[in-house]
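Appendix B, Record 12. Input sequence as logged:
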Amino acid sequence: MPPVDYQKPDFATKHVVNPAISLATRLGLSMRGSRVLAVQGRKSGAWHSTPVNPLSLAGERYLVAPRGETQWVRNIRASGGGRLTLGRKTEEIRVEEVADVGKLPILRAYLEYWRAETGRFFGLRKDPSDEEIVAIAGKHPVFRILR
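Logged structural output:
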């Protein structure tokens, strides 16, 4: 099996930042559109949650994995869906993975909107060319949220 592209969160992110964002989001305080994603584990069947930054683009919504092949990515691939929560509102979602060839406009828009929070995980300069984005597209799974 080939090595997995995954950027593991550091201690502060895992134990301070993500729990704080999750708590705020669960209380209904969205950070620029953040949500808490809950996905059922592919092996355990237990529900796991993590804060995510959904993207709206051209009438569609997407989940992008800036850290790469995370556990939520593996779980949502196996389950095909999950739950997005903001405050007391929980939305059941189904997703389909976007092929690398279709990621360019999505990743560009994601980087423009979420660069301050997640830009470092992409390893790109501030205004990357299309070629630079295409070159890293395979390392960052993208899922279209189905209606």
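The helical segments are 11-26, 71-79, 104-118, 130-136.
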